[in-house]
Amino acid sequence: MPPTLGLVLAGGLARRMGGGDKARLRIGGTTILQRVLACIGPQCDRVIINANGDPARFADTGLPVVADSVPDFAGPLAGILAGLDWAAAHAQNCQWLLSVPGDCPFLPEDLAARLHDARIAAGTQLACARSGEWRHPVVALWPVALREDLRRALIDDGLRKIEIWTARHGVAIADWPAKPIDPFFNVNTPEDATRAEALAAQLPRALTEDEVPE
User: Fold this and answer.
1) List of long-range contacts for 62-69, beta carbons under 8 Å, 24+ apart
2) Does the residue 187 lie in any domain?
3) Contact 77, 159 (CB under 8 A)
4) pLDDT tens readout for residues 172-184
5) Residue 191: inside a domain
6) Sheet holding 46-50: strands in order across?
7) Which of 9, 141, 183, 202 lies at a C-alpha separation of 20 to 30 Å from 85?
């Protein structure tokens, strides 16, 4: 698998949760962020976090925290551009970026490999995940080579919708079953958090904090 930089998108405003960092919610005894890092850490050469505001609140992870370069909370595409720019400057061996939301506690352990396989098979530069009938455009693989095109789309065109931009370049789809647990279930509301807690109880064992990679 080509060297790949992992990007955890934690730059949203969490309006439906009443604000704060959704990634810090505890599900099944550990935070969603710990679960995300434990999953994608072994799949990626390096991992960074995209978050706006004070980066010190993620200091305990020991990971670089990268803010959006596009102002006014321009959405996940701005976070992806920030990750691509960081890769170009600090991880030049990584020509691919794997983005995941910071509010998905059940991500699959074969995510990076399956997305790479999908884009190679389809002959595209981009790949995203799908579970059941639902596509997850922020769970995706991005080439660093397209960062300037993305910058123009965000700044010059004012584009905010991921699937409009990815359609310009072609995007492969990697499929996962949505049952018994959707690996891309995300926590947007207090009700989602309650549901995630119930789903975590169905897993074979709980994740422990010492399983989070350094």
Assistant:
1) 62/214, 63/37, 64/90, 67/11, 68/11
2) yes
3) yes
4) 999 999 999 999 9
5) yes
6) 65-66, 46-50, 4-9, 96-101, 134-143, 126-131, 171-176
7) 183
Residues of the domain holding 106 = 4-204
Q: What is the pTM of this model?
A: 0.91
- The two beta strands, 126-131 and 65-66, are unpaired
Tokens of 91: 């991880």
Counted domains in the chain:
1
Report the C-alpha gap between 150 and 141 in whole angstroms: 14
For residue 204, pLDDT over 70 is answered with: no
Q: By the 8 A CB rule, do 58 and 90 touch?
A: no
Could you say which DSSP state residue 92 is in?
T
Is 211 within a domain?
Answer: no
Whether residue 214 lies inside any domain: the answer is no
Q: What is the rounded distance in angstroms from the CA atom of residue 116 to the CA atom of residue 126?
A: 9
Task: Map residue 128 onto helix, strand or coil.
Answer: strand
Instruction: Residue 192: give its domain's CATH number.
Output: 3.90.550.10
